Amino acid sequence: MIELGHFQVLSAALFAIGLYGVLARKSAVLILMSIELMLNAVNLNLIGFAAFVDFSEAQRALGQVIVIFVITVAAAELALAVAIILRLYRNRSTVNMDEIDIMKW
Amino acid sequence: MTASLVMFYIAGAVTLGGALGVVMTRNIVYAALGLLASLIGVAGLFLLAFAEFLALVQVLIYGGAIVVVIIFTLMLTRIEDFENLSDNVQWPLAAVVGATVFGLLAASVMFTSVRTVPREQGVVEFVSLGRTLFVDWAVPFEVASLVLLVALIGAVVMVRTGDQGE
Questions:
Q1: Which of A32, B22, B35, B68 is least enclosed by beta carbons within 10 angstroms?
Q2: DSSP notation for B22-80
Q3: Predicted structure pTM score
Q4: What is the ipTM of this complex?
């Protein structure tokens, strides 16, 4: 039988993989993908808690509503990130994060 | 081992395998396909956690829209680098950080005292989901729509070329 711990460990693994991707990858698009993985790990955790903790029906619905808000904000973030990447590519002809150091002091 | 647990392991393997594909592969198109597999696996996990509506939303928004937007971004940037991606010099450090975070989170899961209930059924009805979203949380819902609008307008303004929209 599925329990909360299964979801939590899986979510932790997904978050750690996404974190590795954000830190280790060079391409801005791959970093964006890794951020999406981390957001999905958070959603998975929220849904696991909503389903398997001793909550009332209304509280469980609230857990799902929070996930809907997370997905909305993730979509907005993705739109802005894609715009930034395209602008950066037009100005610098690269999306390699090691070469983009204009804000480095 | 019940059938639902078998399904959980299958969906979890798809999710983690796709995620590893995103961070390991040398070919960026394979990375996008791995992301798609991972997101669909998460939709399956939502189904196993009785969140049918969210599984639907996950497939539509992530599988349908977000992966397509990411692939468009790939196509518009640096097509010659597709098959020989390389990682940062700091990737061993990143692996250490990832493993540490996973270890800490997994250890805290072991020692938690949250009271859990094993469930075999218990879908949250669409009615109660809708009531929570549109009655109790109506104002944050409207704010979220405003956030989306501002982000989309901002994205359009940002990618427009500078000299009077030429």
A1: B68
A2: HHH-S-HHHHHHHHHHHHHHHHHHHHHTT-HHHHHHIIIIIIIIIHHHHHHHHHHS-GG
A3: 0.90
A4: 0.91
